[in-house]
Specification:
With about 180 residues, the protein is mainly beta. The chain folds into two domains: about 40 residues, Ubiquitin Ligase Nedd4, Chain: W (Single Sheet), CATH 2.20.70; about 140 residues, Nucleoside Triphosphate Pyrophosphohydrolase (Alpha-Beta Complex), CATH 3.90.79.10. The chain is built from two helices and eleven strands; from the N terminus they run E-E-E-E-E-E-E-H-E-E-E-H-E.
Amino acid sequence: MLPPMKYCSQCGAEVTQRTPPGDNRKRWVCERCDTVHYQNPNLVVGCVAEKDGKILLCRRAIDPRRGYWTVPAGFMELGESLAEGAARETLEEACAEIEIGRLFASIDVVDSGQVHMFFTGKLTGGYGVGEESLETRLFAEKDIPWDDLAFRSGRFALERYFADRGSNNGVHMHELRRARL
């Protein structure tokens, strides 16, 4: 099911759903200029940053899930790599500079039209509270507020991170759909 769309971003005319010639699925197509509006998943990038055996988490100051804890993560920007996006999000949310490690988790959040990618990382200095966070804190594994984590993808990333314990077990892949709530 395509997210609703009313008007063409090229000419402003109304759009309708139809399968364009040579395609195999319905798209929003402009009735006036024939522009096909492809809707693709958004990338979310984040980092499980560690210092002295503890993990950096942020308490969200924004919706969705305001007040819940999360791994620093957010939408990737044009012109940056996955790793650059993860480092930027960590700096924005936790005022923390990190040394990016390896990509270790990929989660398809199908119903939200997103793909979440998580890296390992090492805190290279201090940390603080960015504009999108109420507070930030380092947690030992046993002290992580598992019941107060904002997103299932962040929980999956943390679980895989601790399961790996520094070994390289490849990229863990997972799919989240509403039916699996």
